[in-house]
Amino acid sequence: MLTSSPVMQPPDWSIPFEIMCDASDGAIGAVIGQRKDKKPVVISYASRTLNSAQKNYTTTEKELLAIVFALEKFRSYILGSQIVVFTDHSALNLGDAGTLRKLQLNKLEEVRNDAYENSRIYKECTKVFHDKSILRKFF
């Protein structure tokens, strides 16, 4: 569990890092961790609020902003390391990120080029719909 003791541990430079990013209407956040004995271990947390202009970004742009924020914040951990970035926004494709003109993405590309090997995994999320009974839907 990400909230059970010990809450944070130092990195093991011999195993890949995992970055989990998410965005909401008013803030972005990220967690960097690793899997040790198939259990997630947190190394560091990062979050910040969005300014008034960023609050007007589309969902895709906010999710991409969260990834850029995480890569900048955790740069000292990921340079030269294998990383896996988790996001819950399946429309976000880092290969097509350059086509988004509203965000300045040159820092994202610079970090991607500096890292040894990047990959992307989409979280499987559930949405809870309230009706007469609660149904779990996967998307």
UniProtKB/TrEMBL annotation:
Question: Would the keyword Nuclease turn up in this protein's UniProt record?
Answer: yes
Q: Which GO terms describe its molecular function?
A: endonuclease activity; hydrolase activity; RNA-directed DNA polymerase activity
Record keywords = Endonuclease, Hydrolase, Nuclease, Nucleotidyltransferase, RNA-directed DNA polymerase, Transferase
InterPro entries the UniProt entry points to = DNA/RNA_pol_sf, RT_RNaseH
- Give the highest taxon in the source lineage: Eukaryota
- Spell out the Gene3D superfamilies in the cross-references: 3.10.20.370
Domain Reverse transcriptase RNase H-like, first and last residues per copy? 13-93
Q: Organism, per UniProt?
A: Prunus dulcis (Almond)
Tell me the protein's name.
Reverse transcriptase RNase H-like domain-containing protein
Transferase among the record's keywords? yes
Task: List the top taxonomic levels of the source.
Answer: Eukaryota, Viridiplantae, Streptophyta, Embryophyta, Tracheophyta
